[in-house]
Structure formats: C-alpha cells, structure tokens
Amino acid sequence: MTDRDAAFEAYFAARSDAMRGTAYLLCGDWHRAEDLVQQTFTKIYLAWRRIQRHEAMDNYTRQTLVRTFLSERRRGWFRFESVGSPPPEGAVSSGGQADQRLVLLEALAKVPPRQRAVLILRYWEDQSVEQTAALLDCSTGTVKSQAARGLTTLRGVLEEERVR
Q: What is the 3-state secondary structure (H, E, C) of the chain?
C-alpha cells in the first residue's frame, strides 16, 4: 500500500460516517446515501494526488457530495418509490423527540434539492453563508434566498402535517 492509499484510507475511515449522515439528509434514503458517499469518495480518491491541502478536505468532500447529489437530481437517474404503506388514518403519535425527528426528515425530503442542500449545509453542517456559497459555487445572496425559501417550504410542509 502506498502512502497515498494509506492517507486516503485514514481519511475515509475518519469521515465516511459523517458524510453518510449528510448524504442521508440530502436524499432521505440510507441506501442512496451509501451510493452518494461511495461516488463522492471515489471522485476524491481519483483526485487525491492532485489535492494540495489535505487538512481542508472536509469542505472539498462536502462540496463533492452536494454536487454529486444535485447532479443526479438534475439527470433524473433515480425514481423514488415508497416501499412502505402510509400509516393508517388516525395513527397515534407518542409525541417523543424521535417522532419529531422523523416528521422533520420527511418534511425535509419534500423541500427542493437545492434548497435542501443549502438548509443542510447551513443548519446541519453549521457552515457560514460564505462557506455554503463556496461549496455550492454560488453567491452569498443565492444562499440567503435559497435558505429563506427552503425554510418557508419546510414550514409549509410541517404546517400541512400538523393540520392532518
């Protein structure tokens, strides 16, 4: 094993779980999240020897992950089907934090992909507006407007769920 491979292996071992969590938030499916992480780390491995600043890899990895997700969404490679049946009418909620988290994740899946990417980078990954703009290769104004629209969409979806 070369030093390059050992360094990449160490980085993958240290960061793949965190990236898998981010990928899940982007796509809402653990299997697809695994695919996104695999595609992301494959791209990073291929560019590993050209990367000069390995200490700044997290931002590059997040950027690659988000761009891979958005690219797939634009191409329409994936068609989603629900494998489970919806809960019966009048299902009782236990009202716990886990239920709230599931409701939030379901609502987040209904937010358009670019807005969802901004929301996840800003509020889950705790990136600044400037960092998010750099990761998505857009202006800070775009990040702010996408975040505002995404939050409005998310609130609307959550309100619909609350009314049901």
A: CCHHHHHHHHHHHHHHHHHHHHHHHHHCCHHHHHHHHHHHHHHHHHHHHHCCCHHHHHHHHHHHHHHHHHHHHHHCCCCCCCCCCCCCCCCCCCCCHHHHHHHHHHHHHCCCHHHHHHHHHHHHCCCCHHHHHHHHCCCHHHHHHHHHHHHHHHHHHHHHHHHC
Q: What is the pLDDT of residues 38-58, one digit of tens each?
A: 999 999 999 888 887 777 788
Rounding to the nearest 10 degrees, give the CA dihedral for residues 126, 67, 105, 37: -100
Those residues whose C-beta lies under 8 Å from the C-beta of residue 81, and which sit 6 or more positions away, are none
pTM above 0.85, yes or no: no
